[in-house]
Design a protein that fits this description.
299 residues; 9-stranded mixed sheet; two-stranded antiparallel sheet; D-Maltodextrin-Binding Protein, domain 2; Arc Repressor Mutant, subunit A; elongated; alpha/beta; 13 strands; single chain
Length: 299
């Protein structure tokens, strides 16, 4: 008799609280579950489960053995997942979340490439700028752009992006070039409403940290809208290089006060747990890391 099968069936009974529930979870008959558990108890010479007509519970020995079973089964699943991942075989669905603009500009073209390598994997990609709860909302992986705080989530860094203060030459010709962050209070600014500091824009300059409270002419939850307004000479924006890097390179936008730097943010693949990472998730993470090795935007 397969010892791991015995352990799986016993653990399933303990988890479900019944033989019927365990059979449903494992996709086998109740008789098969009962046989595995009975033979396990016979082999060990102890009763692992107390059975009555109304209730099923773990014995003292069963409680100890259940903890060890769960650990061993988890390690077995993890080992199998790692080997399967290395073989390049993966299948099933992946639910992914990413920020809207970054998802359109820098991820949309990658999904087809990933599926060419792994055609048995299907992707469900949701773009949203809010921070989703991966566990509660059932996401396998998210891409986040942030200074990552301590979290139960596991991360792999993909790249970095610098948040840049910029405007069009035409706007600056009309409104003047600010020389210190405090002057931003008197300028038209286009503000991103998900900015963590609200209307307070922070900078690190020659004399240390400085923050200015801006008065947005336009406030929006879309970085693309901020960029479009800046390109239409509507005002000053504070946006990441992954969005405005090419505009800075062509001169359509100009960086202001480069001696006063704002935040540098990491771009991460985020997933719920280091243990039991499925092959499809491992392969996607490795693919994203590989895809962002070379710079994809001017820094």
């Amino acid at each position: 008799m397969d010892k791991f099968q015995e352990m799986r069936n016993f653990a399933a009974v303990a988890d479900a609280g019944s033989f019927v529930g365990a059979a449903d979870a494992l996709g086998v008959s109740k008789a098969a579950v009962s046989r595995y558990v009975g033979e396990l108890e016979s082999r060990l010479g102890v009763r692992l489960l107390h059975r009555t007509t109304r209730k099923l519970s773990l014995s003292e020995e069963g409680e100890v053995f259940y903890v060890r079973c769960k650990t061993l089964l988890a390690e077995l699943d993890e080992a199998e997942a790692e080997i399967t991942s290395r073989s390049g075989e993966a299948s099933g669905g992946l639910k992914i979340n990413a920020p809207v603009t970054f998802g359109v500009l820098h991820l949309a073209s990658l999904w087809g490439q990933f599926r060419e390598r792994h055609p048995k994997v299907s992707l469900d990609v949701t773009l949203a700028d809010r921070v989703v709860d991966l566990v509660e909302e059932g996401y396998d992986l998210a891409v986040r752009i942030a200074r990552m705080a301590d979290s139960s989530l596991i991360t792999r860094k993909l790249s970095t992006t610098r948040v840049v203060l910029c405007a069009s030459p035409e706007y600056l010709k009309r409104a003047g070039w600010p020389e210190h962050p405090s002057e931003l209070a008197d300028h038209a600014v286009l503000a991103y409403s998900y900015w963590s500091g609200g209307d307070d824009w922070p900078f690190e300059g020659p004399d240390g940290a400085v923050s200015v409270k801006v008065h947005p002419a336009i406030r929006t939850n879309s970085g693309d809208t901020c960029r479009a307004g800046a390109l239409q000479h509507q005002g000053i924006i504070l946006q990441p290089t992954f969005l405005v890097g090419n505009d800075l390179a062509t001169g359509a936008l100009v960086e202001l006060m480069p001696e006063y730097r704002s935040l540098e943010l990491g771009i991460y693949a985020v997933y719920p747990s280091r243990k039991h990472v499925s092959p499809k998730v491992r392969l996607l993470i490795d693919f994203l890391v590989e895809s962002f090795k070379a710079p994809r935007w001017p820094t």
